[in-house]
Write a structure and sequence with these properties.
The protein is of the alpha/beta class and 686 residues long. The chain has 25 helices and 22 strands. The longest helix is centred in the first third of the chain and has 28 residues, at 209-236. The structure holds adenosine-5'-diphosphate and magnesium ion. Residues 272-434 form the Helicase ATP-binding domain.
Length: 686
């Protein structure tokens, strides 16, 4: 049960003044559904403005305060386009004040023709005219007040304005309760951190690094603590030690020898399986590193021990692929394997359920359907989860409840994250790393091409496809709203379809799952030659005949993400190519990133470099979803503060593993605050 003291924070945003269903929608889009979310919606940056006498003194792109006198209102023509108010400064320069949508009503009221007003905003140019789009402030008097404001700039969604959001954040901050201190007093004093409430207030008021650090530290501490509680709980559970006699593994007829890294990982897993405490191991290996064979060995150990194993995949199509691969490899062993997805119905499903219950099926592969309540196992001893980052720790625990005793868990991820982040994501899980690629891999020929050469790229794709091979075309997520990105991808798809016919399919995040799967399936079967996609293809599909990857605006992606995308090609015996299209406004970091992509294919190295490049000057806009499990802590803060938080959490666990004492109970509040309450729930059980 959540401590009562947190209730005001978990009240819905609808309880704030002025928030009705109309505002709740854009707030929801930003993930702001409760008062707490608003309090933690920290500014992306702050603006201060320079008062100028006239526009000659101001540079383009500069935030200014200037006196302007409106001379003419120009309504949007036929309801489209913006509403413009033409105004002049004291030197006679003309500037347009531009308003989109409903904001024009305010303009009409605030900017009467012939009356001088102080206007605060960012000076831009539109064609050969100076303009300020949606001025932040328009007032009758005083550059002195406007010029001294330091205002937060928040991430917005359509239907919200800065003042509106700032007002709501203000209301949220007023409702903050006094919470007990969970940070060790010495730690707080040494860094001069404010208490929690003050830290939040300060973080919204200006660039206060101590306040921001404290808030990030809270989140990191909550995360470390929760993961440690999971680990401690796991140690207390009793699993079933599994020892295999090797009789099935001996019968495998793999067409290749295992790599050293595979052999080592299998040995590590075998060691864990032999223990009574359930295994909690992460198998980390780049795309193509050969994780499947490692999973196969682990599952065969379970089968040799007379038990069952399950492999959980994040999507239907991946489940199908795993099933086909594993079925072929298992054939000489005689082990029974089945596929179970949400789509199986009727008799076929019944017979699989029977097989799982009576134990005639040894291995099952599927989507989360394999863990529905209606699915009962005779003796499930090992769960393999592919692409772990799609599933939270909470789900993993749910799985744990399925077997008669807690099954062993092997999580597999193709995201080669740096060591610091491994700690943040997986806490105390044991890690096996496949840091050696199978021999004979052809490097992917990676080239950086200017966007202006798009026509040549399309030609190259044409030749490639005409030669019977397949290709991916990736459109980035760059715009303010997801719908704009989808529109861009749809437009690219339409253009390529016009050029190449209907062998071009489109996949994006807003497509209905059946349509997405259908498009993927056509591509996997080779019927479709070109797959246009937003980054949804990042995880998953294995189509060896796809040997060309085009990535538009590649500089917008993080290195790790580019690497994941590139990993979709180079999976067969044919030589593969990756074309990184770059825009013309390439930053230094962008240039460095693309150069690294050309230089190396080592995922672990790229992950470390990615962290280095983004770490210091991370823009919030470049944060990738699923990057880290944090919404407050930035990469830089993770690197600086996670080791501290981790040690602090460990100390607390050692002194007060049940979180019964005073600081322990404050720590419980912290866990609920950051919704790591699954950690607390384990306490009660144990
Ligand atoms: P991952 O799941 O790690 O991305 P896979 O398990 O799908 O990689 O393996 C990629 C390809 O490499 C498969 O075709 C697999 O058969 C092959 N492979 C795996 N291990 C080896 C090895 N030791 N030597 C050669 N090929 C291998
Ligand atoms: Mg795989």
């Amino acid at each position: 049960m959540r401590p009562d003291i947190l209730n005001p924070l978990f009240a819905e945003t609808g309880t704030l003044d002025g928030v009705g269903p109309k505002l709740a929608r854009p707030l929801g889009k930003l993930g702001l559904t409760r008062v707490r979310d608003l309090a933690y919606h920290l500014p992306e940056r702050f603006v201060t403005r320079r008062p100028v006498d006239d526009l000659d003194q101001a540079g383009e792109g500069e935030q200014i305060v200037v006196a302007l006198t409106p001379s003419e209102h120009r309504a949007a023509r036929s309801g489209r386009g913006p509403y413009r108010v033409l105004a002049h400064d004291s030197a006679g320069n003309v500037c347009a004040l531009t308003y989109f949508g409903r904001a024009s009503y305010t303009a009409k009221k605030q900017l009467p023709v012939g009356e001088k007003r102080w206007v605060a905003g960012r000076l831009d140019r539109y064609g050969d005219m100076l303009q300020i789009v949606h001025p932040d402030h328009v007032s009758e008097a005083g550059d002195a007040t406007l010029g001294h404001l330091c205002e937060p700039v928040y991430a917005l969604s359509e239907g919200l304005t800065q003042p509106r959001l700032a007002g709501l954040v203000g209301q949220a901050l007023e409702r903050l309760p006094d919470l007990p201190e969970w940070i060790e007093p010495g730690q707080r004093a040494a860094r001069d951190w404010p208490d929690w409430r003050r830290a939040l207030a300060q973080a919204h008021r200006g660039e206060d690094s101590a306040a921001r650090d404290r808030l990030a530290y809270d989140e990191l501490l909550a995360n470390s603590l929760a993961l440690m509680l999971v680990r401690a709980d796991n140690r207390r559970r009793r699993g079933q030690p599994l020892t295999g006699d090797g009789r099935l593994r001996e019968r495998l007829e793999l067409p290749f020898p295992l790599t050293g890294a595979q052999t080592r990982s299998i040995a590590e897993i075998e060691g864990d399986l032999g223990q009574e405490a359930p295994m909690l191991r992460l198998l980390q290996g780049d795309v193509g590193a050969g994780k499947t064979v490692v999973a196969l060995h682990a599952m065969l150990i379970a089968v040799e021990a007379g038990r069952q194993a399950a492999l959980l995949a994040p999507t239907e199509i991946l489940a199908r692929q795993h099933f086909e691969t594993l079925r072929a490899m298992l054939r000489p062993t005689g082990a029974e394997i089945a596929l179970l997805t949400g789509r199986d119905k009727g008799r076929a499903r019944e017979s699989i359920l029977m097989g799982l219950m009576d134990g005639t099926i040894n291995v099952v592969v599927g989507t989360h359907a394999i863990f529905q309540d209606s699915v009962a196992y005779r003796d499930l001893a090992l769960v393999v989860i592919d692409e772990q980052h799609r599933f939270g720790v909470a789900q993993r625990l749910q799985l744990a409840a399925k077997g008669r005793r807690t099954p062993h868990t092997l999580a597999m991820t193709a995201t080669p994250i740096p060591r610091t982040l491994t700690l943040a994501q997986y806490g105390e899980m044991d890690v096996s790393r496949l840091d050696e690629m199978p021999a004979g891999r052809q490097p992917i020929d990676t080239r950086v091409v200017a966007q202006e050469r798009l026509a040549d790229v399309v030609e190259a794709v044409g030749r490639h496809v005409a030669g019977g091979q397949q290709a991916y075309w990736v459109c980035p997520m760059v715009r303010e709203h997801e719908s704009e990105d989808i529109a861009a991808a749809e437009a690219r798809h339409a253009a390529l379809q016009e050029r190449f016919g209907d062998g071009v399919v489109l996949v994006h995040g807003q497509l209905a799952p059946e349509r997405k799967d259908a498009a993927m399936a056509r591509f996997a079967a080779g019927e479709a030659k070109l797959l246009v996609a937003t980054t949804v293809i990042e995880v998953g599909v294995d189509v060896p005949a796809a040997t060309l990857m085009v990535i538009e605006q590649a500089e917008r992606f993080g290195l790790a993400q580019l690497h994941q995308l590139r990993g979709r090609v180079g999976r067969g015996s044919e030589k593969s190519t990756c074309l990184l299209l770059r825009g013309d406004a390439l930053s230094e970091t962008g240039r460095e990133r693309l150069a690294l992509m050309r230089e190396t294919q080592d995922g672990f190295r790229l992950a470390e470099e990615d962290l280095r490049l983004r770490g210091g000057g991370e823009l919030l806009g470049t944060r990738q979803s699923g990057d880290t499990p944090f919404r407050v802590a930035t990469l830089d803060q993770i690197q600086r503060l996670l080791p501290l938080a981790h040690d602090d959490a460990r100390l607390l666990m050692e002194r007060d593993g049940g979180l019964e004492g005073e600081r322990g109970s404050a720590a419980r509040v912290l866990l609920y605050l950051f919704e790591r309450d699954w950690g607390v729930q384990l306490l009660r059980g144990g």
